[in-house]
Amino acid sequence: MIMNKTMHLAEAALLGALLALHSSPTRAGEPSPAAFRWNDLNDKSIELREGNRPVLVYNHGMMLQSGVPKNYTRSSYLHPIYGLDGEVLTDDFPKDHYHHRGLFWAWPHVQIGTNQYDLWMMQGVEQRFVRWLEREVQPQSALLSVENGWFVGERKVMRERARILVHPATEKGQAIDVTLEWTPLQEPIILRGAEDKRYGGLTLRYAPRTNTVITTPLGNENKDLAMTRLEWADLTAQFTNAPQPSGIAVMIRPDHPDFPPMWLTRHYGALCVGWPGIVSRTLTPNQNVECRYRIWIHKGAVDRDTLRKEYQAFISSPPNRIPKINSKKQ
To answer: What's the structural domain count of the chain?
Structure first.
């Protein structure tokens, strides 16, 4: 009898300890973060989920939508990016700009030797997947690194590496750090933005929505901005199937080339970081150029002070660096 009673007490104590461990917060007042996981949706796209909620999809295969001309086939971009309520925040193949593709990076003027190409419109040069570098999940982050190439026909002219670091969602937002690196392989490559608007570089195309508000360090912008130097910009709106307004801010680290670069903002639904703008930038072989950004997804409308605080948190955090891979494979 005494032994059985002792065993029951021990079992109860163990059960209580397990329940307490399961329900204990990681920090005061904050629940344990939901587990990240990467899923292969198909042979072209990989999805990140945090618990049961979708976060983003990276498209590494060649994508084309039904009814769209074949010359708009592309790869190497993020879409969809989801809000904290599961709403889709980005667009792909929009009818007004078939070449827009979620979160992407491209230039309208790519010069190699005396030849001119257009990566923005996929004319003569295109991005293609080469290999995965990292694919990890940890309690406080999810990580995806990929190596792409810029191809002219079958000739690879540029090595491109992208590193996507996703932080756990909070009650108000979720940070995604994106670092991009480019290295010409055989000869210099000259990049230049559009002559009139200076777009060309990191671009975010937003999904259909209503009540669009664009906020920058200058304040709330009622008109589109062109050729304006900014550290960050945010677009907030009422997106389809969302219970409240939401949005995404794009932020740039101070170590970015020509910081702060020129921007183009569009109320129809685009934020464009225009680097290097209309002044040509020559990238030389075996010399890496890195650009670091944060994509901050948020729930609800946000004001300029909140965005400033989030930007300060970003630039105070450790930089998201491309891993140094010792490999002769180009």
So the answer is: 1
